[in-house]
Design brief:
123 residues, Four Helix Bundle (Hemerythrin (Met), subunit A), 0% strand, elongated
């Protein structure tokens, strides 16, 4: 599927599809859920960060991490893990920088997934 090769830097389409046993309907449902809930989890992490709530940051980033894992998106996953680890340690001084990276990577992932959902829904 050459049309998905340009997404490779953001996430591994073939590996993500393999994780759901090539079930395209399930994969499209996961994308739909992530498009709906990913931005909310991101916003909750940012709100908790702004409030200095390390537990809230850890909780939101943990939820995001679970969703990101499904899509085999290494950069987004790494950013999420780092934010969660710092938050669990109660260290939010680097949280703003880590959050900025996470936000950028999640938006890249969302942008990479959206066309697949659009194509899948049209098929």
């Amino acid at each position: 599927m050459s049309d998905h090769l340009n997404q490779h830097s953001v996430f591994d389409f073939e590996e993500a599809l393999a994780r759901v046993d090539q079930d395209r309907e399930t994969f499209l449902m996961l994308i739909e859920l992530f498009l709906e809930h990913g931005p909310n989890d991101l916003a909750q992490a940012q709100a908790a960060l702004t409030a200095g709530d390390a537990v809230g940051v850890a909780r939101s980033s943990h939820r995001l991490k679970g969703a990101i894992l499904q899509f085999c998106a290494p950069s987004a996953l790494q950013a999420c893990k780092e934010l969660e680890e710092y938050a669990k340690a109660g260290n939010l001084t680097q949280g703003v920088e880590l959050y900025a990276t996470l936000e950028q990577e999640v938006h890249r992932l969302l942008a990479g997934l959206r066309p697949i959902l659009d194509q899948g829904m049209a098929a």
